[in-house]
Amino acid sequence: ACGGGESAAPEKAGQASIRLGFSQVGEESAWRLANTTSIEHAATNAGVQLDLRVADGKQENQTAAIRQFINDKVDVIAFSPVVESGWDELLQEAKDAGIPVIVTDRMVDTTDTSLFVTMLGSDFTAEGRKAGEWLVEHYRDYNGTVRIVEIEGTTGSAPANQRRSGFAEAIEADPDLQVIASRDGNFTREGGEQVMAGFLKEHPKIDVVFAHNDDEGLGAIEAIEADGKRPGVDLKIITVDASRDGLTALAEGRLNYVIECNPLLGPQLMELVGKVRTGQSIPRRVVVDETAFDREAAKAVLPNRQY
Ligand code: AHR
């Protein structure tokens, strides 16, 4: 899979004095916790002084953290924006202060690309597309409507927007595949369970659940079982992330297909931070390599899964 393992730490030479302010989204999912740990470990390995602030899913908290980094005159700012829009003014402040900004994981929606130096993260549209393509293939020989419910990620976030559109684009290949309902599950287990319980009450027949992350899918499993149905059998479930818990549910047959979204971005981030600090050229976009898992593939990778 992706992104250099945790062993791919950059060289320490010349980085000892770098101060990095990192504003993290929150603690909503297993993915997010693994992402934070990866960044902390990689900073330690690279000798980067990390000021990590966790925003509890609130844009205003991220704004306050980034303003603080600007006041503190850190060398580099990195952040994973909770939602896509509304960052221009703040990023302009960082630019005016001469502090380079690296966007990680989730993209910002801006027309002024000079406001950040690079974007490191997954291709969420491709992830959504992979989910849709699996479904098209799975129902290739099936005749009749396939009723899909979508448990979306946080409204306004890049992964929710892009996974939704990639998925929609892929399932257009088969008009029998129909999304009958979609709702925000906020990337949490609790959210996934609540949204799924609501769908089950409102819709007498559901064939497929597309959850935008594993946690939502795992929450949906609870709701489906509570409703007396068999997750993975009576309802097919596709999720994104491929966390250990997600792959375990896939290996048990309670999920059906899982798209990888790799959170171990720390080593690549530190490498970029070092290069930005020393004025070396870096690509505008660094995409993380990722794969997808069916049941057998999940069983094969589970023993060594890091997150
Ligand atoms: O931005 C990445 C997404 O955010 C992950 O898929 C999800 O689990 C996390 O909360």
UniProtKB/TrEMBL annotation:
Residues in coiled coil: none
| Record keywords | Signal
- State a single Pfam family of this protein: Peripla_BP_4
Q: What is its main location?
A: other
UniProt-annotated location(s) = Cell envelope
Q: Which PROSITE patterns match?
A: PROKAR_LIPOPROTEIN
Q: Which residues form the Periplasmic binding protein domain?
A: 26-262
* UniProt family annotation: Belongs to the bacterial solute-binding protein 2 family.
Q: What is this protein called?
A: Substrate-binding domain-containing protein
